[in-house]
Amino acid sequence: MWEYAPAPESRDIANLKPDYRMFVDGQFVEGGGEPLKTINPGTEEVLAEVSTAAPADVDKAVKAARRAYDRVWGRMPGSERAKYIFRIARLVQERSRELAVLESLDNGKPIKESRDVDVPTAAAHFFYHAGWADKLGHAGYGPDPKPLGVAGQVIPWNFPLLMAAWKIAPALACGNTVVLKPAETTPLSALVLAEIIQQADLPPGVVNILPGAGDVGAAVVSHPDVDKVAFTGSTDVGKVIQRQLAGTGKKLTLELGGKAANIVFDDAPLDQAVEGIVNGIFFNQGHVCCAGSRLLVQESVAEELLEKLRVRVSTLRVGDPLDKNTDIGAINSREQLTRIEELTASGEAEGAQRWTSSCPLPDKGFYFAPTVFSNVSQAMRIAREEIFGPVLSVLTFRTPDEAVAKANNTPYGLSAGIWTEKGSRILWAAQKMRAGVVWANTFNRFDPTAPFGGYQESGFGREGGRTGLEAYLDV
What we know:
Blueprint: E1 19-20, E2 22-24, E3 27-29, E4 36-39, E5 46-50, H1 55-73, H2 78-94, H3 96-107, H4 111-132, E6 146-147, E7 150-154, H5 160-173, E8 177-181, H6 188-199, E9 207-209, H7 214-222, E10 228-232, H8 235-245, E11 251-255, E12 261-264, H9 270-282, E13 294-298, H10 299-313, H11 334-349, E14 353-356, E15 371-374, H12 381-384, E16 391-397, H13 400-407, E17 415-419, H14 423-432, E18 437-440, E19 459-460, H15 465-469, E20 473-474
Parallel strand pairs: 1-5, 7-8, 7-10, 8-9, 10-11, 12-13, 12-17, 13-16, 15-16, 17-18
Antiparallel strand pairs: 2-3, 4-5, 6-20, 11-19, 14-15
Helix pairs in contact: 2-4, 3-4, 4-5, 9-10
InterPro entries: Ald_DH/histidinol_DH, Ald_DH_C, Ald_DH_CS_GLU, Ald_DH_N, Aldehyde_DH_dom
Protein name: Aldehyde dehydrogenase (NAD+)
EC number: 1.2.1.3
């Protein structure tokens, strides 16, 4: 037997500062809210103190965004806007190592995911949307589509930098200005992105970033001078926002929770499927709204697949997020870890068979070993509720019709996966799945050129691709 030697990335690369301030009208300023301490979930140590916004600060930021829209950004030719967005993209690339280490410190995700997925994809979103800035008349929304104005954006803690890019890049490309509220537990990479925006000489007020808790997000969403709201987060909060904005005339997109089905048919390449299943549920500790958290396996191959899956999961390494050998990092917060523990306990209490990897866990920090439940019924909470952690529920089916019926038996509809060697079966199943994204013989593949979004309680509207531009245009 051989063992992996630790290969930690240096935390000094993150250039961590003792305190961070909010970004309003092109400047870093003190907020009037109660400062928050952001915590490293891998060690439970305080990383930095962050200034937060008060209601008056939200008003200042929205006024700055409105002024920048009216006087500069909304009037600027698309070819000029593109130059700024391209500059941001290049600076994200130049500071990619710093951003990756900072993201892993603040969020808890493995450095190899921050380095190889989050930061490159964030840069790709800026590059892609910069290319659209002077071509909006060819996007299919009329010969001269207009921006909406000020966009209020609220993002979650699972992909802090990537979600910021996902929101800011299309808004800027379409000529809108932005007031963005990062998640309370992960504000640091968004504030370093603000440094990059300042470094790129973006006109003051075009992008404003306000750290804080849910009350700051609510103030941004409800501000009367915000023209468009984009929210990614929990379904419960999404419902509150939708009720709040009903009748206001504000344009709204919601990207909410999910309980994705990953369907494995009896003719699927099982070894390949196992890799896709592992990526689908254990990537980013399962903190993924489109995670493949429900595995539907055809009965004739269920036992063989489960055996292969347990062997593969037992090789996953849980530990220090900055170690390049780590496969599963830290759960983002104590609160989220408690929810995962409560839902897994309910799975055992309701009669599902639990298998948890015997991998060692660090003594300090918020960690949870990868867990697989078999003998799961559709009535169990672990099959119905979004766990948002490294927990997989396995159900079986006999016929393709039964597989689709079980996959669609959920209030969510964000994503799905299909594993089979038959192309006709892929097309048949994909047409019947009520999911915004359906992957075939792969999972968790993202590209800024492809639209992403859901149905039902997973929200509405699309982000990314030509389709995603519509959310930021007056069409």
